[in-house]
Amino acid sequence: MGTDKQPEQPVYESAAAMSFELHSAAHLLRRNFDRLAKAHGLSRSRWQVLWHLAREQGQKQAELAERMDVAPISLARQLDKLQEEGLVERRQDPADRRCFRIYLTEAAKPALEVLRGLAKETRARALEGFSLAEVEQLQGLLGRLRENLA
Questions:
Q1: CA–CA dist 112, 53 (Å, integer)
Q2: How far apart are CA 40 and CA 114, in angstroms?
Q3: Would you tell me how many other CB atoms lie within 10 Å of the CB of residue 87?
Q4: What sign results for the dihedral spanned by CA atoms 106, 65, 74, 92?
């Protein structure tokens, strides 16, 4: 007995439009967050360093540069500025005296609170009109996409 069902189109045929939308959405998220952060004197490079350190303190400078996908020299300059402002500190790695580990200071807490508030505001705007189920589905799908690419 035959079936009238047509074979499914490969998923990747609609991937070009999806890729564009994903790239565009990520760009707009960053731009909206950057605009809000700039009003508080926080450039993208500054807030990214603080954000990454808030997620995991004590990273080696080279590890942090790799995670942020920036040149080590660019990160070093940014860390110099943040250290001058008292927001981060470099501590010598006890296992490798050639390396420094980076930590946030107490003075960074107010900036992090501002960043968290701005992130919440940006997400709320981006997800306006989404149900909790839709947000969870989107998060799951993006997680799978990231896993496929990692």
A1: 10
A2: 8
A3: 22
A4: positive
Q: How far apart are CA 142 and CA 146, in angstroms?
A: 6
E strands in 17-86: 59-60
Cα separation, 144 vs 124, whole angstroms: 23
pLDDT digits (tens, 9 = 90+) for 50-91: 999 999 999 999 999 999 999 999 999 999 999 999 999 999
What is the dihedral sign for C-alpha 48, 50, 53, 59? Answer: positive
Residue with tokens 């700039």: 38
Both tokens of residue 105?
């200071």
- Percent of the chain having pLDDT more than 70? 91
Spans of the chain below 70 pLDDT: 1-12
Cα dist from 134 to 69, 125, 128, whole Å = 30, 15, 11
In angstroms, the first-to-last Cα distance of the chain is: 43
